[in-house]
Amino acid sequence: MKKFGILGLLLPYLAFGSGGESSEIASSGDIAFMLFCASLVLLMTPALAMFYSGMVRSKNVLNTIMNCFIVIAVLSIQWVLLGYTLAFGSDIGGGILGSLEYFALENIGNDGAIPHNLFMIFQMMFAIIAAAIITGAFVERMKFGVLVIFIVLWSTFVYDPLAHWVWNSDGWLLKIGSLDFAGGGVVHISAGIAGLVGCIMLGRRKKLNQIAPHSIPYTFLGGILLWIGWLGFNAGSALGANEIAINAFITTNIATASGILGWVVADYIKHKKPTLLGAITGAVAGLVSITPAAGFVTPLASIPIGFCGAILCFFAITFLKNKLKYDDSLDVFGLHGVGGIWGGIATGLFATSKVNELVANDAAGEGLFYSGDFSLLGVQIIAILACAGLSLVGSIIIFKIISLFTSIRVESNIEESGLDSTLHGEIGYRGI
Q1: CATH number at residue 88
Q2: Which domain holds residue 318?
Q3: How far is Cα 52 from Cα 33, in angstroms, rounded to an integer?
Q4: pTM of the predicted model, to two decimals?
Q5: Left if phi > 0, otherwise alpha if psi is -120 to 50, otherwise beta: which for 191?
Q6: Is 418 within a domain?
Q7: How many domains, the chain?
Q8: What does the alpha-carbon distance between residue 333 and residue 342 come to, in Å, rounded to a whole number?
Q9: Is residue 208 within 8 Å of residue 39, measured between CB atoms?
Q10: Is residue 424 part of a domain?
Q11: DSSP per residue over 27-63, as a string?
């Protein structure tokens, strides 16, 4: 059986469909490591809320935080009831979707070197952060109820199938040899495309040229906590305290540092001033870019991956967005969509069995720079298009259906007054 990627690494230890029974004895070290990593990934969502909220006006800070926070609640329930089984249940045909065998966590046990229910809760945190990322594109103008409905539907009909395609042993993208170590396509490309669709359908905010971040230090703190949480996001995707986890930790940290430098250089060339907001944005660009490649590339390769990722994201945010005039409020597409696309391509260039022997077992072989063969790069491009395509079509359909029953944007007077006081009945700061 071919084994690579998140689920592939788990397959030797789990007998899915039989309550997770296995003759392997669970390693307490691996269990402790995975519980810690799951906690770090959960930390990413409130960290993202802080990162986002510093970049909005003070009258919308609580709504921006609440948009991320509510995702934890609704998707925890959705994942337990339906999401996990659609993503990781046995295939019901064509590598498209999982069966209902794990509905409400039926048939999931504790046995195995990596317990099945531990894998489930780790993956829950991925589903949560993917949906939370999207909210940044909609801030300061989307109805709260519409956001909640969209997130639940998007997770069910876009994220869960994508997780099945890429990480389930029967998923069609996994079978053709695509590599996505920690969610470059499943999480970041899909979220970036959904954010782009939503912000275009919502329309631009009023007086856009007068909008500025209200607390860059707040954004910086959120970004640093994201960085810390991301180490669990990527290293934990090795599903054990092993050499691959160490490599993923190292490449993640190096790519982030490289992303900071890339953005600062671009900032200085364009504006003649290095900015703190730019530096922390570059860190996130580096994190996104390395995510699909973290367990497949060398530390040396993570330097150009992070640096180029920051440059490409900088271009998307400072040029492409202005050229096309869409109001992606907090640059969800520019950071996560573009960074995820580059990360998927970079995996096709730099992946090597010298880091992870599973790459050698991949049907598409090693990356272009090691094999001289375009096979893996071609497969990666197919996976990128598939992830973007499903999120694009799914997001459009979901928003269109919701708009049949209600408008998706708040009224003009609410937008002018601020969403904190009008939608939530509270304000973030007194005297401002």
Answers
A1: 1.10.3430.10
A2: 5-205+224-409
A3: 29
A4: 0.94
A5: alpha
A6: no
A7: 1
A8: 12
A9: no
A10: no
A11: PHHHHHHHHHHHHHHHHHHHHHHHHHHTTS-GGGHHH
Q: How far apart are CA 371 and CA 280, in angstroms?
A: 35
Answer for the pair 290, 255: CB distance below 8 angstroms, yes or no.
Answer: yes
The encoded tokens of residue 123 equal: 């993956």
Tell me whether residue 216 is in a domain: no
pLDDT 10s digit of each residue in the chain, 432 long? 333 345 444 444 343 433 333 435 568 899 999 999 999 999 999 999 999 999 999 999 999 999 999 999 999 999 999 999 999 999 998 999 999 999 999 998 776 668 999 999 999 999 999 999 999 999 999 999 999 999 999 999 999 999 999 999 999 999 999 999 999 999 999 999 999 999 999 999 988 888 999 999 999 999 999 999 999 999 999 999 999 999 999 999 999 999 999 999 999 999 999 999 999 999 999 999 999 999 999 999 999 999 999 999 999 999 999 999 999 999 999 999 999 999 999 999 999 999 998 888 878 889 999 999 999 999 999 999 999 999 999 999 999 999 999 999 999 999 999 999 999 999 999 865
Residue 205 is given by DSSP the state P
Helix, strand and coil in the chain, % to nearest 5: 70, 0, 30
What CA–CA distance (Å, rounded) separates 250 from 243?
Answer: 11
Residue 90 and residue 101 in contact, taking contact as beta carbons nearer than 8 Å: yes
The amino acid that residue 95 corresponds to is G
- CA 187 from centre of chain: 3
Structural contact between residues 184 and 305, judged by C-beta atoms closer than 8 angstroms: no
